[in-house]
Amino acid sequence: MHHSPPFDRSFALFPYEAPIVQFIIQLKFCANLPVARLFSELLLERITTAWYKSSPLPDLILPIPLHRQRLSERGFNQALEIAKPIAKKLKLPIDSGIKRIKPTAAQSGLSATGRKRNIKSAFKSTRDYRGQTIALIDDVVTTGSTVTECSKLLKQRGANAIHVWCVARA
């Protein structure tokens, strides 16, 4: 049985394949932050000229959060680094009302079922998102487990609509 995802729209700049995979690896694992800036500029261009050319922008941007342990290891959240220039240019607030409460294994080495199990109940929020349209931003969407889990939580917290923005999608 196939269920519709809990998010309403999904946008990706690229398919998750070479050479984009290498750029994402450079960003995440080699702290090559200028790559995040490049992704921001490319996303901004697409957001303003295509995706939202004739429809209103979301109310806020919510970068997929990292668990504090992963954040401490990496030193930065790649989704937040991508989101900051976009939020500034579009004059949208960046929200951090979702916390990753479970230190999950890296999704990249897991099967689709493993990813779903790994991310289950990994996030929590006490914030009220009633009536808001939220842009969830991440670098990569592969199986969609992470954005699905966050979207479910945002909808439970009253969000009206969730739009997923990502650099690459498998």
Q: List the strand order in the largest sheet.
A: 1-6-5-2
SSE string: EHHEHHEHEEHE
**Overall domain count:** 1
Please tally the β strands and state the result: 6
The end-to-end span amounts to: 21 Å
Count of helix runs: 6
- Which CATH class applies here? Alpha Beta
Tell me what the structure shows.
With 170 residues, the protein is α/β, with parallel strands linked by helices. The protein has a single domain, classed as Rossmann fold, CATH 3.40.50. Helices cover 41% and strands 21% of the residues. It contains 6 helices and 6 strands, in the order βααβααβαββαβ. The strands form 2 sheets. It has a 4-stranded parallel beta sheet, sandwiched between helices. A two-stranded antiparallel ribbon has the order 3-4. Helix 1 crosses helix 2 (33-51). It is globular and about 40 Å long. The two termini are 21 Å apart.
Write the layout of secondary structure elements.
Blueprint: E1 9-15, H1 20-30, H2 33-51, E2 60-63, H3 68-74, H4 78-90, E3 98-100, H5 112-119, E4 123-125, E5 133-141, H6 145-156, E6 161-169
Parallel strand pairs: 1-6, 2-5, 5-6
Antiparallel strand pairs: 3-4
Helix pairs in contact: 1-2, 2-4
Task: Identify the notable features of this structure and list them briefly.
single chain; 170 residues; alpha/beta; Rossmann fold; 4-stranded parallel sheet; two-stranded antiparallel sheet; 6 strands
Task: Give a summary of the structure in a few sentences.
It is built from 6 helices and 6 strands.
